[in-house]
Amino acid sequence: MGQTEEFIEGGSFVRPQRRRNPAFWKYIAVAALIAVPLFKVAQSSFRLRCPHHEHRPARFAYPGERITWEQCDELGGRPLECSSINVPLDQFDAANSGNKTFSIPLIRFRGNNATQNLFLNPGGPGASGIEFIYRRGEQLREIVGEGFHLLSFDPRGINSSQPQATCYADAETRRQRSSVRNNRVIEDSVEAYAWSHNFVRACADTMGEYAPYINTPQTAADMNSILDAVGQAGLVYWGFSYGTILGQTYATLFPERSERVIIDGVANQFIWYEDLLDAETFIDTENVWEGFIKECFKAGKDCALSPLAASEDSLKAKLFSFVEKLRQNPLSVYVNSTVYGTLDYETIWYKAVFPTLYKPANWYPLAERLAQMLEGNATEALLAYGLSGPWNIEGDSTEFVTYNDGASGASRWPQDRESLLNMLIPYENESLFAPAEYGGYYIKQQWQIPRTHKYIPRRGVKTAHPLLILSTTYDPVCPLQSARSANAAFEGSKIVEVQGYGHCSLSAPSTCLAKRVREFLYHGTLPDSYAQCEVDGPYFVKPEEDGKLKPRRHFDDPEDQRIHLAQLELARDWEW
Question: pLDDT tens, 327-381?
Fold first, then answer.
């Protein structure tokens, strides 16, 4: 298929606004056909949010690119530039698309010595690439260096892309209809099953003919459209969490364009696309919880929980007993007439403990708040965990991508509640944390939007350059076992394991790992065999009173220290 030659105009920009959504994270992959790039003039759907700019910024272009950009903000005193492109509804069938398109917003943080763009995807599905650059661009720049432009985007259906994937006609409908109890496996089954019947219909009706094309294979093909727009032949990519599904899918669909692909915090694409239940997600979650307890005792006075028990086992038992009692006796916490609430089992286990396992840099404050609760003061816990959810996803793109990609709907699942419950009970009993995604299976069972992609993961994929695969030893949701699955699927790929806890390498500061990433990006260098890197410093460190970070170890090289401090800043960020 041919492609049009029009420019894709840069639009003005608004930094995305995110609402809290307790939906569990997901991860996804892509379809196995050839993309059809289609470029049209795209008018951006977002506006400038720089208070010192009151006029429309000038657009500018770069040699070899087919889009124009505009400065939309600054980061660390350096400009951020924004643009957007329109992509066809169906990248794999132009006739099917007609004149329908998705608008994809782009953001770029330019490197001083760069000639190529490093594509970044923060995961989700549903996480905003625009927000990722805003929140983490400076630290990622320190790690990557000045040799690459950092480029990210909001994938189709997500955040500022248009149309945004939603299951609600407006905010008021969402407020009235989105509440459902779905954490208790048996007690909440009736409500979760009945609520999902309506939810899946609303998703299909609200998005109409756009709904079936919000999936990872289409997003992978969209990345080719972005590559073509910026005049880059091959993909240079670093994807985290769900972004590893996107990366694996792209590399399988377009191996000839996969020049430098890093997948970090790896999800198993074979399970993601083809299995009903995910047997791998939680296999190391308890190991991370055990690590929290172990490292707490190792830290001594630097962990507030350490003095409250005589041993690791007794502390674990004490915490579990306390949290378990919250099932029947939630804590009422009153601060003032506008700040009050209750702390129950679901809040502490699924909104406090579980998300904090992702980011060990937040173990110190979690231990402090749990210790305060054990001693009768739950105010800090309420303020931190009881007033909002831990996940920041705008709209309902998580559901669209997850269930459009996977084995969903009546053709794969029994449609009665009892049969599904009988399937779920043994699965949910395999991990104390598994009910975090319990309600999603009722949606997956009843999903009505047809699966339009034809992607099937395969092994023996030979890419233009082998993949670099990153994992911690104990990841709470993307276990090392899943990284080994990817390693077996892509010829010549190599694993670098960070010997520690947390979700993705960004959660476990390691200058050894950062050097491996640079060597791969700049020179294509892979380890000769399976490689390991140590974590730099302890897990429990009392924060400085001024909030500033200090190195966890000595560095002879000032650049190594800057990278280390950037990693610490990334690791302590509460939001994934």
Answer: 999 999 999 999 999 999 999 999 999 999 999 999 999 999 999 999 999 999 9
> How many other CB atoms are found less than 10 A from the CB of residue 329?
9
- Give yes or no for a contact between 167 and 193, defined as CB atoms under 8 angstroms apart: no
Tell me the C-alpha distance between 135 and 570, whole Å.
9
Contact 164, 130 (CB under 8 A): no
Assigned token pair, 470: 């990153």
Q: State pLDDT tens for residues 247-275.
A: 999 999 999 999 999 999 999 999 999 99
**H or E, element range at 269:** helix 269-274
397 alpha carbon, distance to own chain's centre: 12
Pairing state of beta strands 116-121 and 235-240? parallel
Half-sphere exposure of 62 (CA within 13 A, CB side): 17
In degrees and rounded to multiples of 5, residue 503 shows phi and psi of: -95, 115
**Token output for 415:** 């449609």
Reported as type and span, the H/E element at residue 58 is: none
The DSSP letter of residue 504 is S
pLDDT of residue 144: 98
Residue 92, classed as helix, strand or coil, is coil
Q: Which residues contact 152 (CB under 8 A, 6 or more apart)?
A: 106, 107, 119, 120, 121, 122, 129, 130, 132, 133
| Closest-CA residue to 347 (of 305, 390, 286) | 390
> CA-based diameter of the chain, in Å?
71
Please state which of the ranges 95-99, 238-242, 397-401, 468-472 shows the lowest mean pLDDT. Answer: 95-99
Q: How far is CA 534 from CA 331, 347, 358, 362, 501, in A?
A: 40, 33, 18, 19, 11
Task: Pull the structure tokens for residue 377.
Answer: 């003061």
| Residue 465 near residue 524, CB atoms below 8 Å | yes
User: Any idea what DSSP says for residue 392?
Assistant: B
How far is 419 from 428, CA to CA, in rounded Å?
15
- In angstroms, the Cα distances linking 361 to 289, 573, 574 are 14, 8, 9
The two tokens of residue 478 are: 């993307």
Close Cβ partners of 72 (under 8 Å, ≥ 6 residues apart): 12, 13, 48, 49, 50, 57, 80, 81, 82, 107
DSSP label at residue 465: S
Cα torsion for 558, 495, 477, 498, to the nearest 10°? -30
pLDDT at 115 over 70: yes
Is residue 124 left, alpha or beta, with left meaning phi > 0 and alpha meaning psi from -120 to 50? Answer: left
Q: For residue 160, with 0-12 CB atoms within 10 Å meaning exposed, 13-18 middle and 19 or more buried, which class applies?
A: buried
Q: Which residue has the tokens 């350096």?
A: 78
CB burial string 361-383: b at 16+ within 10 A, e below: bbbbbbbbbbbebbeeebebbbe
